[in-house]
Amino acid sequence: MQRQTTIPSRQPSATSADDTVLPFEVKALDLRGRVVRLGPALDTILRAHDYPAPVAKLLGEAVVLAVLLGTSLKFEGRFILQTQGDGPVRMLVVDYTTPGKIRACARFDADRVAAAIAAGKTDTGGLLGRGHLALTIDQGPDMSRYQGLVALDGKSFEDAAHEYFLRSEQIPTRIRLAVGEELSAAAGGAQHRWRAGGLLVQFLPKAPERARQPDLDPGDAPAGRVAQGLSSHVVPEDDAWVEGRALAETVEDVELIDPALSTERLVYRLFHERGVRVFRDAAVSAECSCSRENVANMLNSFSQDDRDHMVENGLITVTCEFCNSTYVFEPDKLEPPARGSGV
């Protein structure tokens, strides 16, 4: 006889820590997912730069999405999310390194962002314009990188993520992202702090045919027929996924960022009727990989001519684009350029 393992049950915790990722499972619906709650880590990243509020919010959404996707890595490596577009925000970069280090930055045209704010065009499409979202998995120098690309073209990050999973992973997936500022009283007046939350739910049945999806346009059908709903290849959605997706879509932004609502209570609120199992949460921290030693090694690799062009007022100053830390070097204290460097 097989011994049955009894999973202990308890009431959801009334409190939870910020900067954590909580995995969960709804076995009755073949769902697995994660909830991300970011507080001080996100605030540290965004406060390092004087970003306009819409740019900070957009970068916050990118950070949450990168954490949701990066925490799925089962090996030591990096998950890199990067956007490039023709809008006021030219580029966003989020670098997630296992097991939980995150850094991020944005490049933008201040005048165009101000114009977008004045025109009320501060949604994802208005700020990023037409371009693409690149999702890169880096397993280290001895392994090939994997990269998926998704056209933005006015899409939100949620829509772009759904498109990625539909086309690249072919896993039924729903993602929700929320970013906001928390206002609290302090001795020097009102204090603003950034908070964010995210939910990822995936349908992972044991029988793979249950997760099959319709052909993408054009697929095996004549061009345009799938988009018009005329393809004969129609795969009805599994009832369990229809229910799970519908439940995930009920979550509101305030629920994802509310510090008074614990992560376990949020998951219980969504899925308690079917029974939800939570696993041990994992910590996330804002941590940049730059250091004075790393910057010095970079400068040592440059040719003498390159270094000479970097000197201002007798010094070489390098500012990290991620954490805004500044490193100052005296040119004559650097190592002599290697023979042949710059050729």
Total number of beta strands: 15
Quickly name the level 1 CATH class of the largest domain.
Alpha Beta
Described by its quaternary structure, the protein is single chain
Task: Quote the average pLDDT.
Answer: 89
Topology-level CATH name of the largest domain:
Hsp33 domain
Strand content: 25-35%
- The general outline is globular
Q: What integer value in Å does the Rg equal?
A: 23 Å
What is the H level of CATH, i.e. the homologous superfamily of the largest domain?
Hsp33 domain
Strand-pairing-aware structural class: alpha+beta
As residue ranges, the low-confidence spans are none
Classify the helix fraction into a percent range.
25-40%
- Largest beta sheet, briefly? 6 strands, antiparallel
How many domain modules? 2
